[in-house]
Amino acid sequence: MSQRQQLERIMEIDRRIRDDEYPNANRLSKSLEVSRRVIFNDRDFMINRLGAPIEFDRVRGGWYYSDKTWVLPGMIVTEGELLAFFLSVEISKRYLGTSLESSLRSAVEKISKGVKGPVTVDMDTLRSHYTFSAPMLISANEQFLLDIHHAIYGSQCLWIRYYAAYRGEYTERTVMPYHLNNVRGDWYLIAFDKLRNEFRTFLVSRIENLKILPEKFIRDAKFSISDWMGSAFQADRGGEATDVSIKFNAVTARYIRERNWHASQKVEELEDGSLILHLKTGGLGEVKRWVLQYGSGAEVLSPESLRQECIDEIKSVAGVYGI
């Protein structure tokens, strides 16, 4: 029986006691479809761990609170829920960026103070049991993330000064913010760019400055964030979605099988232990970088344009090393 189910039963027992129904183990076991032993265990938990002043009324044949001012703790959590909360906070500290650490710590303290009774919050003990390695992130401005959130929520345009790394220059533009997407710890803004007259993806850490404008915009009902991200590969959406096939040798295939790389992926197993990964994406630039990291363990089969780009890149690398 799960801890969540136990908490649900405890809340039901508490409700019936407060409604002066004088519940007992027999009636509760029938209505909640559990054994009498389970109900007695719940009662004992309420008395011994939550401090519930439960007494038995022999005349009415059921339980009541001897102190009617007693209430269930404001927050009851299971050990599993507490662990999940701790893990989410620790991971968030690394994936949201260190600038948000003070806000996250404040959230931990507030929630910890609200947890009473059966579970105590000991973050230091939990930290001694789990270790997180921070990813290599480009630091994002905390205030920018909050401002973008407010702009998305209020459907307000943003003015941004943005650094385009591939051109090595800054541009100023007005965008209609739709969505924030976190890819491997880095934050990306998906917005309609008035300068280019199309939807674009902007790395938040490359935004040098921004302002929330009073100008409102109406979201395009035809725009689907799931479709937009579904045609991307990791952080790169690129152009139109294209069918891609990549062959991985038997050794590399062991690692490829372990993960779901793209929503559209299909794996074709080959007799020698190798495989061909089929997917449809527009982020071919990111696909090229991803494939090349596996060296001779990966080979682009199609499209021909991507295969040629990989060949050119390999030749260029060989030239760097004087091969």
From TrEMBL:
Signal peptide segment: none
Residue ranges of every copy of the WYL domain listed in the record: 144-212
InterPro entries for this protein: CBASS_pafABC_assoc_protein, WCX_dom, WYL_dom
Domain of life: Bacteria
Pfam families: WCX, WYL
WCX domain sequence ranges: 241-317
Protein name as annotated: Transcriptional regulator
Organism: Leptolinea tardivitalis
Organism lineage: Bacteria, Bacillati, Chloroflexota, Anaerolineae, Anaerolineales
